[in-house]
Design the sequence.
């Protein structure tokens, strides 16, 4: 795996939450010490289903960068860049669009699922941009010769589509592009405060990395607990309690086992249990909030990180584009 390049990133549609931290961010902090890492703020892809709300996308670009820096992404180790500021990605997307059929895009399981979820937005008429975002994603990956793509299981069909595009391009034009490998995240998806299997920006069930102490406490106090437990002495079932679920994330193993035992014996009140959990989460996130506050007070430093990262990323993408155009006989006057 020596000298491998990793590409990962997020759509700027909202601040990042603890689900993102346990699902990907903590792993990125580790990987940046081991591999050449590119982290993309995918604003173009965010516009595929937020085309009518560009202010939302623009605002959250900076919010996400602040979240990255707060968790320990080091701009001296990882390259943070904005997708729309790399025109070579858009150019590659156009070239790749000739290598994949509409029928193949419509069969992509991830695309099919997301189209169904966006029924209210699109109705019966899905936009070209949304249907084709796997092609754009293939351009993201190949522009930087990324060979390792950390993903969740639901994203595997997108990486396979990219691999198909790479193989077809190379079979026609020669061995120019790197075929990426998907690396499944070992972290499981974090449930929402309401018990939903997914903690989501749009579901109102998330604790954000940038939440204040007051916001964290308020959210934890509203978390779903065992509905059959009315008073402290009632025997509880921590297996169906979101407070116990989060204690498992933010409390040591011995303390978590104690929480569950006291709950089952009717020796632990839900209010006290929630307050203890809120304090644990607050302390866990405190270093992140402090680091975020540092960068919030220095917007010019954040701008510099984004600009320099994007310049470095574009330099890499330009070289890829030169190789692609040469292979496609489009290098006129060279």
Sequence:
């Amino acid at each position: 795996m020596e000298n491998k390049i990793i590409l990962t990133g997020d759509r700027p549609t909202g601040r990042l939450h603890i689900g993102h931290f346990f699902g990907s961010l903590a792993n990125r902090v580790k990987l940046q010490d081991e591999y050449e890492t590119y982290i993309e703020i995918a604003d173009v892809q965010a516009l595929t289903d937020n085309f009518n709300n560009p202010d939302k996308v623009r605002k959250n670009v900076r919010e996400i960068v602040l979240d990255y820096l707060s968790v320990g992404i080091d701009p001296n180790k990882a390259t943070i860049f904005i997708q729309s500021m790399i025109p070579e990605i858009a150019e590659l997307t156009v070239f790749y669009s000739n290598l994949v059929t509409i029928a193949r895009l419509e069969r992509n399981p991830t695309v099919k699922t997301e189209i169904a979820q966006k029924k209210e937005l699109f109705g019966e008429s899905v936009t070209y941009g949304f249907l084709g975002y796997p092609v754009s994603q293939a351009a993201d990956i190949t522009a930087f010769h990324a060979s390792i793509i950390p993903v969740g299981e639901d994203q595997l069909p997108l990486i396979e589509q990219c691999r198909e595009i790479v193989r077809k391009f190379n079979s026609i034009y020669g061995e120019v592009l790197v075929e990426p490998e998907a690396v499944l995240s070992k972290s499981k998806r974090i449930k929402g405060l309401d018990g939903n299997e997914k903690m989501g920006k749009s579901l109102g069930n998330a604790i954000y990395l940038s939440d204040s102490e007051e916001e964290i406490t308020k959210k934890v106090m509203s978390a779903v607990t065992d509905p059959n437990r009315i008073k402290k002495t009632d025997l509880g079932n921590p297996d169906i309690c979101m407070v116990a679920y989060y204690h498992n994330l933010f409390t040591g193993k011995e303390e978590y086992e104690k929480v569950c035992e006291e709950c089952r014996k009717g020796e632990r009140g839900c209010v006290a249990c929630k307050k203890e959990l809120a304090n644990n989460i607050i302390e866990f996130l405190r270093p992140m909030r402090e680091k975020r506050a540092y960068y919030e007070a220095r917007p010019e430093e954040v701008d510099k990180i984004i600009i320099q990262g994007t310049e470095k990323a574009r330099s890499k993408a330009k070289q890829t584009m030169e190789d692609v155009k040469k292979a496609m006989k489009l290098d006129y006057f060279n």
User: Anything to note?
Assistant: The two ends are 35 Å apart (CA to CA). Residues 286 and 309 are 27 Å apart (CA to CA). The longest helix spans residues 299-327. DSSP finds 15 helices and five strands in the chain.
